[in-house]
Amino acid sequence: MSTPTVIYGRPVTTEGIPNVYAGAEVIPWATPDPGIDNLGITSVDTFAVPGMGEYAVEFEGFVRVVRSTPTSREWASAEVYTNLIEMKMVGDSPELGRITVSLNPECLSAGQIRTPFDPYAGEGPSAKACRMAVGAVFALPKLGLKLVNKEPIILTIDDVRQIPPAGAPGKGQIYRMLPLNDIEHLDDAPVAYVTSLRFNMGGYLTEEQIGSM
Fold first, then answer.
1. Please, are residues 166 and 21 in contact by the beta-carbon 8 Å criterion?
2. pLDDT at position 139 over 70
3. Pairing state of beta strands 6-7 and 107-108?
4. N- to C-terminal Cα distance for the chain?
5. What does the mean pLDDT of the chain come to?
6. 61, 41 in Cβ contact below 8 A?
7. CA–CA distance from 39 to each of 71, 144, 175, 200 (Å)?
8. Pick from 170, 162, 76: which is nearest to 131 by CA?
9. Which of 62, 82, 90, 147 could pair covalently with 138 via S-S, beta carbons 3.0-4.6 A apart?
10. Which residues are CB-neighbours of 29 under 8 A, at least 6 positions away?
């Protein structure tokens, strides 16, 4: 792997951190030990391509996320830092062809899980919020393009009651349109835009499932 030149958050080490696969127990309102979560993911992304149109594409794949040691064993006060270390999502569009989404190795895609600042929170456990700033590569062989986002894609999940937030819905915080640039011509005008992104975190996958994708 190349060394990232764009850092979107706090680095989290993978050294000595165990992989967590299907069969692992996830306990609500608890702060687990560090781990590399191997999770399924699905999403619906909408792309606008000038001169062609706007297209919604369904994706399916996996993500591998390393989690830091929690800052506390108390749920309410604990913060957990995360890095997205691998991703592969595949979707098909009649107009755009097969699209494969992977991590941009030039970017450290990083995030955090913590309890939001909420002076109106009631008694009992407070749900956390999860966010991740992601740099991605969108490969579109039918169009002969590899596109990257120069601005981070901010993925968010609200109402997090367990770590990892497997099975939770999330969304990309995109203001109207997120530019995608040709990886070979980064300083030229954007080639396409992401105008909407909705995703669902799946459960743990087996090592065999990850390897076959």
1. no
2. yes
3. parallel
4. 19
5. 94
6. yes
7. 23, 30, 27, 10
8. 170
9. 147
10. 75, 125, 161, 162
